[in-house]
Predict the 3D structure of the following.
Amino acid sequence: MEGDDETSGPMIDEIYANGDGGDNNRTRKPIFSGDQLDIEVYASLYAGRTKIMRLLFIANRCGEKNNTTMQLEALRMAYDEIKKGENTQLYREVVQKIDGRLGPGYDLDVAWAENVDRRAEQKKEKLENELNAYRTNLIKESIRMGYNDFGDFYYAHGQLGDAFKSYVRTRDYCTTSKHIIHMCMSAILVSIEMGQFTHVTSYVSKAEQAPESLDLITVAKLRSATGLANLEAKKYKLAARKFLETSPDLGSHYNEVIAPQDVATYGGLCALATFDRTELKNKVIDNLNFRNFLELVPEVRELINDFYSSHYASCLEILGNLKANLLLDIHLHDHVETLYDQIRHKALIQYTHPFVSVDLNKMADAFKTTVAGLEKELEALITDNQIQARIDSHNKILYARHADQRNATFQRVLETGRVFDRDVRDMLLRSNLIKHEHNLRASRKL
Amino acid sequence: MDPMEALITQIQGLSSSAADLSRLHTILKQATADVSLRSYSDHLPSLLSNLDPSLHSLGFLFILDASIASPVSKPQAEIFVPIVTTFIAACSVEQIQLAPDKFVSVCKKLKDQVVLLEAPIRGVAPMLTAVRKLQVSTERLTPLHPEFLLLCLLSKCYKTGLAILDDDIFEVDQPRDLFLFFYYGGMICIGQKRFQKALDLLHNVVTAPMSSLNAIAVEAYKKYILVSLIRHGQFSTNLPKYSSSVAQRNLKNFCQPYIELANSYGTGKIAELEEYVQTNTHKFESDNNLGLVKQVVSSMYKRNIQRLTQTYLTLSLQDIANTVQLNSPKDAEMHVLQMIQDGEIYAMINQKDGMVSFLEDPEQYKTCEMIEHIDSSIQRVMALSRKLATVDEQISCDPIYLSKVGRERQRYDFDDFDVPQKFNI
């Protein structure tokens, strides 16, 4: 009955010990820990537009939950970050959101905004003139550069749709595979920002068509981008595979999209939710590449190890601790609930799997829930045929139910025979009817 | 001599050998066509007394048919019903099969008359005999099949009706007979609570080939939805591919309340279902399906309890009542008890502490009966596949079929385009 003790071998004890030590590590690691998110450390992982967007996302989330200090903190950093760039529209929005709550330093700086706008206007004009000149001269490379500059310009000013169009337009003027990859990477970046993840997949596959000119970092970038796209499309298993394939060369080279910590978290959670035990062992725990990522987020590593060594209580505890911060993640927030449910279901299934009978009281303890709640969860899983067992509600024991193959086969055979019998008879009848009608028509014609 | 008397003499004289009978048949047909029989319809009954129904069946049949040609009143019917009944019981199979349409017409009149007399049960037994005498083989549907089932339904003699429903029907003359036969058959099986059989029969109606929608199919589809819910707890609006496109496209539109009922059933919420039934009572009532709808509602309780047996070994009556949304543990106990009695679940109720223990199906597939049953199923399936092979052979030799297939193939045959017809001088 003691699920935890029976399954733990010497190796698992070791992991378990490691898991206990996790509490000490946890305080040192800022990302996705159980403590409240340290926004500054979080933001430092990212660069460019995604940093701003992530901060704003956190601000919105906190605003919904009336966590004003955190909201203002996020807004303040977003403000500072925007000031470094040229996106005046976003700037105005943020200032409106701050609404004077951060003191006079964070009011609308009209002069700055107008200045930036004016410069943007000038730059646009300049770019247009240049591009026209290139186009009249028909120099392919220059036209490509011109469009590319336009894309960069639009992207910096937050006009993502136009940026995407400009980047895609460079395609006709690409002469080497390097150019194509550059075009693809720009398009992927903009599509991720726009949330158009179908574009992401198509441009990734386009980029992968020229494998010889892909360097390791680019490959890693493409993998993680595909992972993201699959995650957003709710194809968690594919997403997990792609994140696991991402090589540690990624480093912080893709921080305008994704941090290596994210790869670990996304990949780890998706893998937990969708892989079976052997896959988990082979592809996640024994995966040297991915271990590098997991080192960055020890909580997720502990989580996976706990899950694999069947320490569900600590596993679920870590999950519970992580949840608040995961909900603040711009990509993961929508999927947290589904992934959590799936992980919990898998934990329940794995827990019951090796036993002939399970004491529900102990199981409820292990899962930190009540017996009645557990009964409901198990009932749903049994109804879904995910657990082959039956609940003795009187004595609060779950008994494994080994399907009687022989009886089931007999039942199925008889049923199949009956259906065949009926179908053949119906078919004969119908064919006779059709024949009859056919004859009727033929005789009418005569 | 009175033409009638001559006719009687002829009947009496020509009722023995096959050659004579065919001559008599021609004479009788002529007599009917001449309307000469009609004009004497008044004293035809008295003429019948000169004939023996078992010896002179053919002649008797023609005169009988002529004598009840016109609509009859109740007292007249009182006279005719016994005559027709004795005739059906006594008549010779060979002779009536010479004039099946006359026989059918007489039997149909019998049906009208017993219905007129409001005693449909008087027609049940003769009609069954008539069906048996008229059909060449058990695989052939006669026009009397639906009439017989209708009488069974009207007189509530469902068990008698089942007798002919167990025959496999393969050959049909009139599609209309077939629709009615299966529809009435379905209703009889519903009356006997043999829902699987009913479902099969109604399925036949719905999927039968039809070029235009008919009322029988619509009514059958309504019942099909309800029975499918009772029997399987679910209903899919998708008809199989082989059903006619008319049915696939239009049936749904005529049965909207029923489809919505099925959707509501699918949610598994009993309160919602009951409310829906409540608000639409008049619709179901006007279709005469209210009783069946009520059975659908109660089947939902059963289904929910059945589902519990999959998940639980023991469960208190209180918990059952809560999960299934019954009012009290007492209600739950009644339901469980009823289901145990009907063999729908295997369980034991412990009244002391109010617990129900669910057991596994005790059938071990080891008994002689079971093996016999399996063996008979195998035999049946083998016979069927033999039949299937024969039919396949027949069809592939059928000249009409071949000419149709051949014509279609020609259209795509590439060789034909080599020398276009008009240039081929």
